[in-house]
Structures are given as structure tokens and as C-alpha cells.
Amino acid sequence: MGKEITIYDIAGQLQISPATVSRALNDHPAINVKTKALINAKAEELGYRSNKFASNLRKQKTNTIGVIVPRLNSYIMSTVLAGMEKIANEEGFNLIISQSLESQKKEIANTKTMFSSRVDGLLVSVAFDTDSFEHFQPFIKRKIPLIFFDRILENSNCPAIVIDNIKAGYDATSHLIKQGRHTILHITGNLKRNVYADRLKGYQQALTEYNIPYNQDFVWETDLSLETGKEVAQRIVSLKTLPDALFIASDLCAVSCITTLKELNINIPKDISVVGFNNDPVSQVIAPKLTTIHYPAKEMGEIAIKYD
Description:
Number of helices: 12
Mean pLDDT: 91
Order of helices and strands: HHHHEHEHEHEEHEHEHEHEEH
Number of strands: 10
Low-confidence stretches: none
Strand order of the largest sheet: 2-1-3-4-5
Largest sheet: 5 strands, parallel
Radius of gyration: 26 Å
Distance between the termini: 43 Å
Shape: elongated
Structural class: alpha/beta
Helix content: 40-55%
């Protein structure tokens, strides 16, 4: 590769000052139109590329926003990111995206990388096992905007973008109860995370409202993966008495569970009704179609980027 062309190379070729070249390339009004045209033509001829990163650093701004998500292979996260990308592009910002892979250790490393990359702001949905705020402190000390979305850290005193997970959990459970179901098994994620803890609260509220006793044994904490869906189904059929409904906090896990239950000769929804969560497209390709709670992921991404 040849050496990078600089404003000094252009200045040398045209026998003018580097300052004049710099002003012309930045469309400074002090430089006349003819000179600007000459300089821009020479820059294009030589293959000059403006160093926006260095320029932005001088302005203490890089026009980049860091985003840390638990996983990229998630319908919700990919849709959130689509919303973020849309607004970021419109506003002239770029996103640097990384995934924690549900590990606080990896999240800490990602956070350090984002800080070193001088991002102008950081958006985070925390990992399953994150229980510390310490790795975010450098952003607070430097007054770099830090916003949590979806999975948040409680009491962090940072802005947070979330849906009403309590109402969503209530709606899912009350729907099943209205269908005549009273033995409702709730398959949830890590209850340290706000999204799952709040959906459980909604589940409990619905049971209370309809005078159905809450049974701790009917709340199964899992990682909500595809494989877990199969394991849950196998565990259900081993029970002495089958539940008549499932509220599963992830469509992907719910579809996997339904598929396995059907293979084990359980009729869905006659024997067991199921409600999922997220409105993942996979909910529409299974038979019967999965009843699910809509998650406004794209809107969440747009709001998170716009947040001031």
C-alpha cells in the first residue's frame, strides 16, 4: 500500500500553504471558489482521504456511539439495533457494536474498549450475570452519556429505556386465565434482571386478581435458549399433574418447547395453552401460531439514540 496522502502533499504539488489547503477542503468561506475547485480536484487526483477521526478528536468528538448488547443473534436486539442505526445515520453518527455473550467479564472488556475508542456515548443492555456498576464509572467521571435499555441496572442513576414489563407479564397471564387456565407455569430468565423480575411481578398480580394461589414451584428460572425449551417440555411431561398453560418469557424458547411437547403427544393448545414474549417472527411459523406479547424493539432503539 502507498503512503497516505496528506494536505502537505497537496500543498506541495500546488505550491500553496497547507493552511489554505485545509481551509479549502473544509469549505472555509475565506477561500475563493476557483481555489477550492483547484484544491479539491488535486485532492481527488492524488487519492486524498480526510482524517475525520483526527479532526473529531481535536474537537473532542468522534461522532461514534458505542452499543453493548447481550447477543447479536437475537431478534429483539437486532431490531433494537436497526432502530438505533436508522436515527444514528440520520444524525451523522456511527455505531460501534459489541456483544457481551451474557458474560459480565466480557462486558467489562467491551466497556473498556468503548472508553478507549472515545465514543461520544454508550448504550448498554446488560448481561445475565452483571451485578456491578464499577466498569461504567469512567463514563460517569468523564460525563460521557450512558444509557441503559431493555436490561438495566437498578439504582444506577442513569437514564433507562424499558417497556412496562409488569403490565406485559400481567397481560400474558390474565389472557391465559380468561381462556379458563388456572395451573400456569411461568418459564422465565435470570430474575436478577429487571425484565424477568418485572414480568414475574405481572404474573403474580394476575394470579392474585383472579384468586389463584401463587406457587413458587411453578416458576422455572432458565436461560430461555432453544435447548432449554426442549428440556422444559421433557420436564413438564414427567410431572405427576400437567400444567394447563405456559407463560414463557421468550418466543424462541416457547416455540422449541411447543415443538417438543407435540412430539411427546401433548396437544397444543387443547392440553396446554402457551403464551410467549417478543413477537418474534418465529411465533408465526409454528402451528398453531404462538400467542405472544409484542415488544416494540425498533422504537426502543430509536428512543435510546434520541435520548437527551
